[in-house]
Amino acid sequence: MDAELSSVSLGRTGLQVSELCFGTWRFGRETDAGRLEIGRDTAMDLLDAYADAGGRFIDTADYYGDGDSERWIGEWLADRDREDYVVASKVYLPVGDGPNRQGLGRKHIRRQIDRTLDRLDTDYVDVLYIHRWDDDVPVREFMRTLDGLVRDGRVHYLGASTLVPNAWKVTRANELACREGFEPFTVTQPRYNLVNREIEGPYLEMCEAYGLGVCPWSPLGQGFLTGKYERDGDVPESSTAADRPGWADRYLTAENFDTLDVVREVAAETGGTPTQVALAWLLAHPGVTAPIVGARTVEQLTENLGAAAVSLTDDQFDRLSAAADGPFAALDV
User: Fold this and answer.
1) What is the pLDDT of residue 329?
2) Which of the residues 9, 122, 150, 285 has an alpha carbon 20 to 30 A from that of 156?
């Protein structure tokens, strides 16, 4: 199914973004087995395909591909109107040796935003996420530093990524920001999909209370919900299960396959694929803003974007929701 992506509001930011965000974490990335996932030429083809489908919400990080993700996006944007695209990046993960080349200390944040903007060849990023929480830096310190980036125009909005199930940490930061007059977090980026349900409950309730945009990563359960795996089948070569030790033990469980059975049933009813149905469930979810999809090939990306053309009935949505018990305990990633 082909579809033209629609626009949705990114929480209370005032930004309009595509209903599916394009994640570029595979750009320049080597797998644990030493295989390059996506090179520059394929990255350009994927960005072209996303834009051709009406996409304009691009997610990256200073850490992805040792900077190549941001660099290639910058090269691609050079031939386009920057104002047509909403670009999000992140800061926290180590980008070199030494204690001050990671985390949320002021020195690292200020250094990295300069490097990010240089690689993207732009004056600003629309959203800057903290990639993780930093217990070694006082909340007031990093929120004040992030607020300074917004005040000087280098960042428009702030987001918090991968803080599940610690909703209280986002709440604590935003309450401090309110008291101090700092820019608060207005977007979150948790993991959420039909087999990882840990944000259900306090986390989603917190997002609703603050009007935060919710942009889930891993919407396909790191590939499990595509249907490529079988209960008693061999693990496909060049798959996540083959590349990441321990992944199969976490995802290839009887309970997850029971959920996948329901996904496949609904796919047969709608004429979509399991991938599209899993994404369509998130698109129809009242607490979700824009799931982040990635792909290794243009064909995979086209299939993902086709989820926007899949309409679920209330019964189908409810069956999918009930297919696995939530919330789940958070898994190590």
Assistant:
1) 38
2) 285
